[in-house]
Prior knowledge:
- This protein is of the alpha/beta class.
- 41% of the residues lie in helices and 16% in strands.
- It has 15 helices and 19 strands.
- It has helices at 20-27, 89-106, 124-135, 150-167, 176-180, 184-190, 195-213, 225-237, 241-246, 269-278, 295-309, 313-329, 353-362, 391-399, 405-408, and strands at residues 2-5, 10-13, 18-19, 34-38, 41-42, 48-49, 54-59, 78-80, 85-87, 115-119, 139-146, 171-175, 218-220, 250-251, 259-261, 338-339, 346-347, 365-366, 377-378.
- Residues 369-414 have low confidence and may be disordered.
Amino acid sequence: xxxxxxxxxxxxxxxxxxxxxxxxxxxxxxxxxxxxxxxxxxxxxxxxxxxxxxxxxxxxxxxxxxxxxxxxxxxxxxxxxxxxxxxxxxxxxxxxxxxxxxxxxxxxxxxxxxxxxxxxxxxxxxxxxxxxxxxxxxxxxxxxxxxxxxxxxxxxxxxxxxxxxxxxxxxxxxxxxxxxxxxxxxxxxxxxxxxxxxxxxxxxxxxxxxxxxxxxxxxxxxxxxxxxxxxxxxxxxxxxxxxxxxxxxxxxxxxxxxxxxxxxxxxxxxxxxxxxxxxxxxxxxxxxxxxxxxxxxxxxxxxxxxxxxxxxxxxxxxxxxxxxxxxxxxxxxxxxxxxxxxxxxxxxxxxxxxxxxxxxxxxxxxxxxxxxxxxxxxxxxxxxxxxxxxxxxxxxxxxxxxxxxxxxxxxxxx
Length: 414
Ligand code: AMP
Ligand code: ZN
């Protein structure tokens, strides 16, 4: 039996001798979205069809059967509900590039002469970011940090290496265990912080150091709109005002601290995943095995429920914060930095948070007493303003990308 389908116009052969709804079922078509026409008459879904019949299946919901690209009207492959738009492959890639260009321009993140170090985890976001920046002609090298999380870390490293090899791009690698004597699972078991907190602390420390040691102007991470909205939600629910004050897509360089930027903050997770897929980027789909039950994931789910009911909520929450909320919080940002006595990286305390965490994990003593009745310090012992360990702060730490912000970023948010 011949079936004519529309938008695009095409003909297929299917077996007759059955009801209309069975034929529609085989073709994966919802009976409520089409007219079925035989010999210029409409037929209902219970009508029997014979092998000799010729039918036309005509879509009735405009735009429903096949969405069209907003820019070029070709059949769309990705729908972006919050923009009320759909795109074909080529125009979607262009859309992503444009959002990144807009982000770079809005915060003057870097220019064509700047050396950019992209922190790449092997996941969709950071590889998509590296791909976009190379595509736009920026001087972008990658940095992979081996966290020692078993097969997950090994697979991530291989994916990042393959990406760099395919594009002839430069990749720096740092291995936490080799360089600093501990891996993330050990840190989680031995340290006083949660695994995610010490992992986040280590990443920010190593990213900053690598950028300074190798002369990069700026570090770029793959944080997307979903990450930023979830973090802001978590910080807001606890009114962590100093963390809120620093949640910015660009944090300036200052004494001992590299400039840090998040060029994907205007793009959702769905958009970065679609981009990576459409660009043929092989990325690690599995999640870190240690994040199960992570509080940030719950906030992401909550945001997604709100977004499903009212598309645009997520971007309004975060982008409007940047525009109207952030200026109100900037007074909260009052950190004063000086070099860590052990490693020279900036800190608000005598030793930086990373050196304190590391000494605790390795069971080392940190530094000699400075005199008076001060005892030699051990890592993880509360010290200084940002080291108080109330349950709220501990939770905020593991939640917030801007964990211990004063130590890592310092200075005013803009
Ligand atoms: P996450 O904290 O895992 O959500 O990652 C946030 C961002 O940090 C990613 O988009 C990457 O830019 C960067 N990142 C995370 N893990 C690594 C890693 N192992 N090596 C290099 N960069 C990483
Ligand atoms: Zn230090």
